[in-house]
Specification:
This protein is mostly helical and 135 residues long. The chain has one domain. It is built from four helices and no strands. Helix 3 packs antiparallel against helix 4. The longest helix has 33 residues. The protein is globular and about 45 Å long. The N and C termini lie far apart (35 Å).
Length: 135
């Protein structure tokens, strides 16, 4: 059985649609965690920060993507809120706080992930020319 070039293009687009949100969620959670851990001082990043942030980002990204797939939503604000809440929860349990009492760092990380998710989604939507409120 031979595949046509159109089949390869369709397969590539399908894979991008399926894995794109997964990669996006992991990246946004990881980036928010990194920035929160070093309190914005990116020059202070170390390998241990990357390891902790990567672990937090992968777990939060997988859980958030699964939850969003089950919810069958593509509303950008819902995606941002879900990712932020899950990132905060995972961050709280993944490592001890680097600053603030109790769960302050986890909340800051979650808010950062939510904001980053919303802004990245808005840029992607604008670039694609999609209708407001959808990815």
């Amino acid at each position: 059985m031979r595949c046509s070039p159109e089949h390869h293009i369709d397969l590539g687009l399908t894979m991008k649609r399926r894995f794109g949100p997964f990669v996006e969620n992991i990246t946004e959670s990881t980036a928010a965690c990194l920035v929160a851990m070093v309190q914005g001082n990116l020059l202070a990043l170390s390998l241990s920060h990357w390891v902790i942030a990567s672990r937090t980002g992968v777990i939060a990204g997988v859980v958030a993507t699964t939850a969003l797939l089950l919810a069958r939503t593509n509303k950008r604000w819902v995606i941002a809120v879900v990712l932020g809440a899950i990132t905060a929860g995972v961050d709280y349990f993944a490592h001890p706080a680097m600053f603030g009492p109790f769960a302050v760092e986890a909340v800051v990380t979650g808010l950062g992930a939510a904001l980053l998710s919303y802004l990245v989604g808005a840029v992607i939507r604008r670039v694609r020319g999609a209708a407001p409120g959808t990815v």
